[in-house]
Amino acid sequence: MASGKAVDAVYNVKPPVPARKLRELYYMAHCIHSHAAHFYALAAPDFIVGPDAPPSKRNILGLIEKVGLEVGKEVIRQRAISQEIQIIVGGRATHPVWNIPGGVSKALKADEREKLKGLAAEQLDFAKLGLKLFDDLVLSNKEYVDLILGDGYELVTNYMGLVDENNKVNFYDGKVRVVDTEGKEITKYSENEYLENVAEHVEPYSYLKFPYLKQYGWQGFKEGQGTSIYQVAPLGRFNAADGMATPEAQAAYEKFYETLGGKPVHKLLATHWARLIEILYAAERLNELVNDDEILETNVRVIPSTTPREGVGIIEAPRGTLTHHYWTDENGIVTKANLIVGTTNNNAPISMAVKKVAMRFIKKGGEVTDGLLNMVEMAFRLFDPCFSCATHSLPGQMPLAIEIKNSEGELVNKVSR
Amino acid sequence: MRTVVIGLGNTILSDDGVGVYVARELRERLSRDSALESIDVIEAELAGLDMMEILSGYDRAVIVDSIELGGFEPGTVFRLSPDDFRTTPRLASFHDIDLVTALELGRRLDLEMPSEVVIYAVQAEDTLTLGEGCTPAVEAVRERLVNEIEQYISGDIRNRVSIDLCFRKS
């Protein structure tokens, strides 16, 4: 979706409204199944099975034992429904080729729209089921609430997210808003202004860069007011926005902040709750869009007529703000590209959170149990990271060299590829 | 017996695409064989929960992919079972579930999952360089692997090019 918007910009063309709505509709379905897969398959076992449960139980299979087969079946069924929506709208659920410069390659038919209405209604029920489970199994359990509210999983940074004209969370379009650790707006920028606001720090030990706020300059891995580090993804979006653009998600957003003590929330594990509220938002928005008659209009593409040059596209990926910047030759062949993906934005926060949680729970001389190690894993799992997207290497190969040294620091072996 | 052959990989990352290339050639051959034309051949760049859905509804599955194991010549073909991947009860990915969990999850959810799953994994030389087509060492084994899979799904296990995990362990 970000690449589609970047290519629109490369060709200096704005898709017609029906095309933009169809893209958003497709994307809402994607957000539902992406967020649902993360919560039910990867994150929920930590809470619902238990953070110190044995690894053989702390997985999606153990989760099903706990919540019942019917919930498991419903998750898989709803995941398939999200993908069916994507196939109806865009031809394919993964790697669609329907999103093209200036719009989309096919309009929506009336009978397809009728089918979408039924599917979207089911997705809304599913979104509510997730929040009910979270209420029943997490928020009503004092141990888990203490874990969320405790000082272990807390990181005080700035926050970033895409917002609409009312500063409400938006996944497809709008401006990128950044707030500080107290929730005050630092900047709000358009796509073509991202380089004035974000820069990327490089450390020699990592293939991932460490983005930071350019106006503050790189200050190292430091949290607290004045830091140049920012967080993205559900918690970043919530803190950076003033609310949600759909009614039930807005009510859930208000309950979120009331329960957690007001804005901004720095409690990292609250991300999981925010993710479930975003599923509700996506399902509500999906229903709004399928019931919008404009999605049936057939003017779904503006044919590009200018020579392509350069363009930037920004969306909110489930894992955070996603920026694609392309430079092309006059034939539209990409000559240079810059991608700042959700997980790259969160690279410094992930590193800091892991260190902080490890130092909080692992004590010198104490036993490092499997449960403790999982508590550390939970610190990075909550970001729903995608390191394969975030890892960038210019040569196209991995010039990896591992030096093995003995206790005297002498080189024993060197392995390279 | 409902059988599916799934070629996994990315065809713009050199040897990573070998599973897809094998699947394409096999599909072409099976389309000319009336006894085998009902077998589904799928190309995919997917894993985890997506694989669970693809595998659902089949009695037998053949998965073809590239692999990188230390100490083996590129082009070596391993014949593996899901149990060979049962290495940890932990999450194998931050992003999705692994094949073993996908199969187990499907069974627990009462989906019709294949009882027979064989994985052909080709030792890759290069899965990082952008480019279409495989390296010569992997390309050299491709046709023989297609022959073996065609024979395997026909019930013939002679003339194998692959070696099983026991051989690797020894």
Short description:
The complex is a heterodimer of chains A (417) and B (170). Chain A is α+β, with helices and mostly antiparallel strands and 417 residues long.
What is the CATH topology classification name of chain A? Cytochrome-c3 Hydrogenase, chain B
Secondary-structure content class of chain A = alpha+beta
Can you give the mean pLDDT of chain B?
A: 88
Number of domains of chain A: 1
Q: Give a quick account of the main beta sheet of chain B: strands, pairing sense, barrel closure.
A: 6 strands, mixed
Alpha-carbon distance between the two ends of chain B: 34 Å
Please report the first level of CATH classification, the CATH class of chain B: Alpha Beta
Q: Which overall shape of chain B is indicated by the principal axes computed on the Cα atoms?
A: globular
| Inertia-based shape of chain A | globular
Count of alpha and pi helical runs of chain B: 5
Number of domains of chain B: 1
What share of residues are in beta strands of chain A? 15-25%
Q: What's the CATH architecture name of chain A?
A: Orthogonal Bundle
Number of helices of chain A: 14
**What structural category do the secondary elements of chain B indicate?**
alpha/beta
> From N to C, what is the helix and strand string of chain B?
EHEHEEHEHEH
Over all CA atoms, what is the radius of gyration of chain B?
A: 15 Å
| Unreliable residue stretches of chain B | 166-170
**Percentage beta strand of chain B:** 15-25%
